[in-house]
Design brief:
This protein has a domain at 63-344: Alpha-Beta Barrel (TIM Barrel). It is built from 19 helices and 17 strands. It has helices spanning 84-91, 102-118, 136-149, 171-174, 177-184, 191-204, 227-240, 252-262, 266-273, 290-299, 307-312, 320-326, 345-355, 369-383, 417-424, 451-460, 462-477, 480-492, 501-504, and strands at residues 6-13, 25-32, 35-40, 50-53, 57-61, 63-68, 121-126, 152-159, 213-219, 244-248, 280-284, 302-305, 329-332, 401-405, 430-435, 438-442, 445-446. A hairpin with a 2-residue loop joins strand 15 and strand 16 (438-442).
Length: 509
Amino acid sequence: MTGTDHLITGATVLTMDPVTGAAPVTRSIRIRGGEITAVEPTLTAEPGEDVIDGRDRLVVPGYVNAHTHSWEALFRARLDNLPLEHWMLLSYPVLGLAPLSPDLIRLRSALVAIESLRNGVTTLVDDVLEIPGQTEEQLAAVFETYRDIGIRANISGHVMDRPFVAHFPFLADALDPAERRALDALTVCDTGDYLAYAQAAAARYRDYADGRLRFMVGPSAPQRCSPELMVGLDELARRHDLEFHIHVLETRTQAVTGEEFYGKTMVEYLHSLGVLGEHVTIAHGIWLTDSDIEVLADTGASVSHNPISNLKLGSGIAPWRKLRDAGVNLGLGTDGMSSSDTARMSEVVKAAALLHKVTGPDYRRWPTAAEVLTAGTLGGARSARLGATVGSIEVGKRADLVIYDMTALAFTPRNAPELHLVYSENGSSIDTVMVDGRVVMTADRLTTIDERAVLDELQARGPELRRWQDHLETLNRSLLPAFDRQYRQVMSRAVPVDRFSGHGDCWLN
């Protein structure tokens, strides 16, 4: 199956389209040139088609990982029991870090793509942060790796242009003079230079890999970026129809930061700058107020919900039901492989389905399997500006499909396929993964890359990488006492918890 013309016959299908959604139906699917050209109860094979027997098979749109960071692949399983701000200091070290080589970035990106495809993820939204800044060669390494392995992706140059100390409300007073001097000496991105870089990247990667890979803009967060940078990137995104991907209200610290810096919430601040719209994806959105949710709904912005990362970092619980009731588009993301330690979206889908069952006693408002599957497919596609391209099985869309073997353990005994997929399946039942009509995994083997060679090289470089990480961690752990002092000050601030949707609803608190 090397071509892009296929016929899948008589399969159980979750189309995720507006008519059948996650309700299983029996369908045959014709794919020509990577595009879905027919979805019917029965279809007859035509000359030149690779025929895939759909008996005992479940066909679904590939998952869209609406928020991840490939940088963190090298920091998997190093850190535990730290809140976000402390954790970032060690997983994105600011002291002593030299730029990574394109060669290491290729290995890192390949690792993320391998684990993603093996778990039924066909699209990544990769918010790529390089420290101290991203070069054209580093960005090209990500694009080239994803091109060769065959995955679909939005790829950013994650950027900050405010000095590090200015990202936090109380850090300046918590640092000793030597620490302050070291942090003030860090290189800060020049706003104009970065806007020119982003414009060039948007043009360079406009139709890269036949349109499968696109550049997106990634201003890190409101408190880490100047208004000039955010407005400039918003204009660029609107001009080129790119995703504008930004972290907003992930932690209580960030909720306090909004009040301290702007006298309003972060969402209100972004809205005042005019940078919210349908092209915007807000990562996390935990500490949202009810009025914030109204603004997001009115502007058409999406939220990427990242439940496993939020749980590991103790960040809080996003207001799933309030966001859905308001009409806000929701995607699902793994976040990076240091804050969640995996790129497997099946775990995120299950976590999203389970987590919100403890946020209120009214079981009629708990997430349904159909809702979380929609968020993991079509919702993520919409947040990535790919809603007309992928996310559902419909005529005219690209064939990004995953085929599950329903004779496998996770589907035995066979009951409701959509419930098996949400609660039982972990990637072990995947038979075939297809991106743009090209089979990129079949019979438990990736067809586009020597997976064993990638893993062997990373394992061989393990001692070198751990020495490098240990050194960086030692340097940056020296700042943790100052972060603790700031953390205690944040936690001492009176925050009316019931003002924040995801927390006022938590009946177990």
